[in-house]
Write a structure and sequence with these properties.
Blueprint: H1 2-22, E1 29-32, E2 38-41, E3 49-55, E4 68-74, E5 84-90, E6 96-106, E7 112-122
Antiparallel strand pairs: 1-2, 2-3, 3-4, 4-5, 5-6, 6-7
């Protein structure tokens, strides 16, 4: 009896690992970063595009921070299921736009993590000031 239950537990553990490995990253839903910002993404459409909203917890402004719309696209998922993506956020409280690019990773337990980089462009009064408009 003991060996049967041990084999059953081992089989269930292996099936759980296979199920987690077969799953693919899904961008849809609520995401939070380590700074306290929140992002909500819609489901991908047939073309791989999505929309959503971003509520940043950090900003270089004295204005009230508002939830801002975003638009993006995901690369077709590879067999590994850890796709790349990009999106832009049109900030509703500042004269700037941020472009994010990244990849969704899934660990062996099925936990999804988005690794991203961003580039922010703010409006400046003249082309002469363009050098200081991008971070």
């Amino acid at each position: 009896m003991g060996s049967i239950s041990c084999c059953l537990l081992l089989s269930l553990a292996l099936l759980s690992l296979r199920a987690a490995a077969a799953r693919k990253c899904d961008l849809q839903g609520l995401w939070r970063n380590e700074l306290g910002s929140n992002m909500t993404l819609s489901a991908l459409d047939a073309a791989g595009t999505f929309s959503g909203s971003y509520h940043t917890a950090v900003a270089a402004t004295n204005k009230q921070i508002l939830v801002s719309p975003l638009q993006g696209a995901q690369q077709h998922a590879s067999a590994k299921g850890q796709p790349t993506f990009g999106f832009t956020v049109q900030w509703q409280f500042a004269d700037s736009t941020t472009a994010f690019v990244g990849q969704c990773f899934m660990d062996h337990r099925g936990k999804e993590t988005l690794e991203t980089m961003w580039l922010l462009r703010e409006e400046v009064p003249s082309r002469r000031d363009a050098w200081k408009a991008t971070r």
